[in-house]
Amino acid sequence: MWLMAGKPKRKAPARTKPIKDEVIRMRIPAEQKAALVAAAERDGLDLSVWLRRVALRAAGVLPSA
Questions:
Q1: Structural domain boundaries enclosing 49
Q2: Predicted confidence (pLDDT) per residue in 10-23, tens digit
Q3: Is residue 5, in this structure, part of any structural domain at all?
């Protein structure tokens, strides 16, 4: 049996993520950084993601958990 040529399958458009092009730097003691890293790890997140969530919730941009 032979296969008929049909319409080519269309690929779904990829979702675009917002571009994160701004950088915020902080100076904190090593002990405070260790505490923040530990809190992020407890939630299973990278430090930058965890900090972003905490800060955006405090700013009222994200709903509280």
A1: 28-65
A2: 877 778 888 889 99
A3: no
